[in-house]
Design goal:
The protein is 36% helix and 11% strand. The chain is an alpha+beta fold and 433 residues long. It folds into four domains: 1-27, no CATH class; 34-146, 4-Layer Sandwich (Glutamine Phosphoribosylpyrophosphate, subunit 1, domain 1), CATH 3.60.20; 180-313, Orthogonal Bundle (Penicillin amidase (Acylase) alpha subunit, N-terminal domain); 326-414, no CATH class. Strand 8 (355-356) and strand 9 form a beta hairpin. It starts with 11 loop residues before the first helix and ends in a 19-residue tail after the last strand.
Length: 433
């Protein structure tokens, strides 16, 4: 799929750079243009009875690249990345457009990921974990859109401590709000702020004391979660916005996983000059940027919440969820399809992933589209939806699961013609006399 993007010739950037873009077109290639049959792959996965059949199921899988987990009753555990990926020539930089005057800047070939990157973890811990994080190191460029390792680390932490692994524990785990990322970031930043504590006012000292005692759980009812989130947001702005400007900063942070990983890397290594504010004559460093970001965060908190009483800075007042129906984008009928706006905890580094767009804080734009737990030795499955099974607002099932989903609840559905004794079609709640 090599498409000439002629609209670039009309852009401000093109006009500024003159003849180059008037004479050349921009083309792109995509692994998705290949013949493929992902539905057939999934059908074969569900019919496979051993690992070889499971592996062969992905011969017709092309895009998107996904990680599949394989577990059998003999204790064999594998993670299988599946999909097509281009292999580029050494001189090809995959992150920027390339001039195709040289044949060495294109794609050398395409490979099936499952043939090269099978991750074998046979019964090492009794479980497999992946959370959109980077699972393997490749000499070839695969992608840069990995999630921070925080959610992966937290799942591992909980599963290694809690046994047996069963349905109730899985339900709890899917609603976990603790952020290892926040813990690691504050481990670096807090000593720097404490070292300059004498320069803080009384409100800033209160906020600092709360961060020092924080349990790293981003609960919607917690006020320290707000202090941390505002600090993190201002840390991003103080680090990147002066170099990028407002528009590029918005585009760079649009996919939050990239900037989340990068800011921690820069803070941890402390080798970059990106911490210098190019808008000032002075040369700022990492420690100064961290300190100023914290002061800005407390100031922003008083403005957002309208009070300097930090106990009233509930995270759920700024971190919300507002599920959208596809038809709610029409302003004339939006009210018919609205479910409402509700407080929610977590962020993009917690197992309960409630990601927000860093350039438009702080409402969540990413959240679980379904919660699902299945014990293969059980005849029941457990799930909940952030809405209901019907898209019709006149239907009683339009949003009947939302409150259940929001509060971490699940519906039990039997897969057997004869449900076991634990299955209940309804739960009756009686008021105690």
């Amino acid at each position: 799929m090599a498409n000439n993007l002629s609209f670039l010739t009309k852009s401000k950037f093109t006009k500024k750079n003159g003849k180059k873009f008037n004479q050349q077109g921009l083309t792109f290639d995509w692994t998705g243009k290949n013949n493929s049959d992902e539905i057939l792959s999934l059908y074969k996965v569900n019919k496979s009875i051993n690992y070889d059949e499971f592996l062969q199921s992905f011969n017709t899988w092309c895009t998107p690249g996904l990680n599949f987990h394989y577990i059998n009753k003999n204790g064999d555990y594998k993670i299988l990345p599946a999909g097509n990926s281009p292999i580029r020539f050494e001189k090809h930089n995959p992150l920027i457009p390339q001039i195709r005057s040289s044949s060495l800047t294109g794609w050398k070939e395409q490979i099936k990921l499952q043939k090269y990157y099978q991750i074998d973890d046979t019964a090492k811990n009794g479980y497999l974990v992946s959370a959109n994080n980077k699972l393997f190191i490749s000499k070839d460029y695969i992608s840069n859109y990995w999630e921070p390792i925080s959610r992966f680390d937290r799942i591992n932490e909980v599963l290694s401590l809690e046994k047996p692994h069963n349905v109730p524990r899985a339900k709890y785990l899917q609603n976990d709000l603790l952020s290892p990322y926040a813990k690691q970031l504050l481990k670096i930043c807090l000593p720097i702020i404490i070292d300059k504590k004498i320069l803080l006012n009384s409100l800033e000292k209160q906020a600092l004391n709360k961060l020092c005692r924080w349990n790293y759980i981003l609960s919607s009812k917690d006020n320290t979660s707000s202090v941390y989130t505002l600090f993190f947001y201002n840390l991003l702005k103080c680090t990147f916005q002066d170099e990028l400007g407002d528009k590029l900063f918005s585009e760079y942070t649009f996919i939050s996983s990239v900037s989340t990983r990068k800011i921690f890397e820069l803070i941890d290594e402390n080798k970059s000059n990106v911490f210098d504010n190019v808008r000032t004559k002075e040369i700022e460093n990492r420690n100064y940027t961290i300190f100023i970001a914290f002061k800005n965060a407390v100031k922003q908190g008083t403005q957002l919440f309208g009070t300097d009483d930090i106990s009233k800075w509930k995270y759920g007042l700024i971190h919300t969820i507002e599920p959208e129906h596809i038809l709610s984008r029409n302003k004339f009928i939006k009210n018919v399809f609205e479910i409402g706006k509700y407080p929610i905890g977590g962020n993009n580094t917690t197992i309960l992933n409630t990601d927000w767009n860093y350039s438009v804080p702080f409402s969540s734009v990413v959240y679980p589209s379904v919660r699902f737990v299945c014990d293969l030795s059980d005849t029941n499955i457990y799930f909940s939806l952030p809405g209901g099974v019907s898209g019709n607002p006149q239907n009683s099932n339009f949003k009947d699961q939302f409150q259940l989903w929001l509060n971490g609840g699940y519906i039990s559905i039997s897969l057997s013609k004869n449900p076991n004794s634990n299955f209940k079609l309804k739960t009756l709640i009686k008021k105690k006399k």
